[in-house]
Amino acid sequence: MPADLFAQALNGLAYGVLLFLLSVGLTLIFGMLDVVNLAHGSFYMLGAYAGLSLIAGTGNFWLALVLAPLAVGLIGALVEVSCLRPLYRRPPLDQVLLTFGFIYLFEDLVKWIWGGRIRSIPPPDLFSGSVSVWGAVIPSYRLFVIVFGLAMAVLLWLLIERTRLGAVIRAGVFDAEMTGGLGINIRRVFTAVFAFGAALGGLSGVIAGPIQSAYPSMGVAILIPALIVVVVGGLGSLKGSLVGSLIIGQAETFGKAWLPDAAMLIIYVVMATVMLLRPQGLFGRPLK
Amino acid sequence: MDKVTRRKFLGTASLAAAGTAMGPWVLRARAQSGPIKIGVVLPYTGVYAVLGESITQAMELVFARENWTVAGRKIEMIKEDDEMKPPVGVRKTEKLIDSDKVDILTGPVHSGILMGMRDKVHNSKTILIVSNAGADAISRDRCSRWIFRTSFSNWQPCQPMGGWVAKNVSKDVFLTAPNYQAGKDMMNAFKETFVPAGGKVVAEDYPKLGETDYAPYLTKIRQSGAKAVFAFFSGSDAVNFVKQYAQYGLKDTIKLTGAGFLTEPDVLPAQGAAALGVLTGHFYTPLLDNATNHRFVKEFREKYFGKMPDGFACQGHDTAEVIVRALKAVNGNTQDKDKLVDAIAKVEFDSPRGRFKFDPKTHNVIQPFIYVREVREVYGGLNNVVIDRVANVADPGTGCTLPA
Fold first, then answer.
1. Residue B237 domain boundaries
2. CA of A260 to nearest chain B CA: how many angstroms apart?
3. According to the 3-state scheme, what is the secondary structure of A130-184?
4. Which residues of A lie inside 8 Å of B (Cβ-Cβ)?
5. Residue B317 within any structural domain of the chain
6. Where residue B27 falls among pLDDT bands split at 50, 70, 90?
7. What is the ipTM of this complex?
8. What is the value of pTM for the model shown?
């Protein structure tokens, strides 16, 4: 039985880390721009498809892992500059509707370029098998995802807590107007953060590709879990995104293993409990 | 004298009858010369868009062979996207019946939509030819004189597999399918022959429809002690399940078997090597060796850029073929619906899957064969190769009584 528990905990960890990579971009964008970017799932999807083409073209997964997020980041920057920027002064609902519209736009774009069929993304050769860790069998690619995701968490933490750029972002999250008043070009920072968040979404798409394949509705499918993570962890918090992801990853995995009929219910129960006890999320700023 | 009188009488009577019928006749003649409207309710967006596409492409192929004309009347397809959502599907059905006044309705893919549109179709006496949705109930207690099915009942591809798996693969089997009606229907059908053959269901799991991460279930399968798995998944579910099954290293130790949808040509390319060796039961594979199928595969691939027809395409082909043949039999008269229903019920022809005919008891297709197929690398790609077959698989039709 302990072997069972450990195996499922590893599954949950891999899934949680994937959720982290996905939700961290969403939470960053919200924290900085105060925009709930519903099109974040689309960046995830675009990342997967860009990765698909890059892997097909170059045969190199690692190259795709670097280039696909850059491409998605660029698309994110374009979206921010051309469409989102004029809407900052409008009510939040307008921004939500805009990003909602982009979901359909990107889905049709993907169908137009890549077709509606489900496409598979091969894992890198290095991680194509499965390994046994203390009696628990897990695909080696998922072990890689765990290590990669946790490393990304550390890198992001360093970036935000230990660099000047990070300081600007933190200041912007806290009070964008004031930060602008300090002589920082806040518009440019907004664009950079949006592009960076989109790139993280794209990165998670490439990482998820070998596990979940690529298909046009994948972005919508993943949006709900990502939003739940952000609500549980606290909007705008990096730490919250990590802890929320790991909690939801474990809750969903053990839910599926033990109570398959109620697996989805369980993550909603977790979310509802957190919202009742701490409406701002585990690590969110207190609500005003 | 006697004879002449009778003839005279008949002559007069028929003249009189013709006279009375004159008014409606004029109107009818107009309707009869207009196009025959075929309503199509299928998903063209969403996860199962690919299925709707295959069915539609094959229907269009068959109608194009007839130059879109039957018995001197044009054929017109009116396509509606049901988005795989029952409320949308029902609304589109009502639109096709009430405002477009279609002569024949076809579709849908989703069993829930079929169940939702059933009463509307039945009460309005609209002829529906089901081109995919397998809900068993439509061949059982919810059957209707007005509803035919060219595809399958969920029971059909799975029931023969139970005994076959118990005999040829293993008696310790783990069952898994998406958590909705079709999933439960199929697993129950499997058990019908599996358990009497000495099989033991080690455990069952029903992940949600549209699951992306099967890891927790795969870990349970490994630890269950099962020697084989019988699974039903379709679309992106089928890709992710089969791929993750292989990634978890289960492929070589626990034999994967299932309903044919698990490894249809719409998902095989994405599954790749992970699908090699998977055993499934289905009524069709593009490799079937018969003249109708050779022609169908050749024309389909020529018309649709090398795309391999799948079971869904075969269903579309047969739906259109049934329509064409029945309309020819009634000489394009779509007004006499009773006659048209009788003509449809009598249609029999060589389909790509074998000799096609409806079960008079249920209006559901009698599968000429359920083929046991193994995924192998042949003819330059992954294909479902027939290794065994069970003949004449008709749904039991429990609880269905059609008016004679």
1. 155-282+371-393
2. 7
3. EEEECCEEEEHHHHHHHHHHHHHHHHHHHHHHHCHHHHHHHHHHHCHHHHHHCCC
4. 3-4, 7-8, 11-12, 14-15, 116-120, 122-123, 129-130, 136-139, 141-142, 211-213, 215-218, 221-222, 253-254, 256-257, 260-261, 263-264
5. yes
6. very low
7. 0.88
8. 0.86
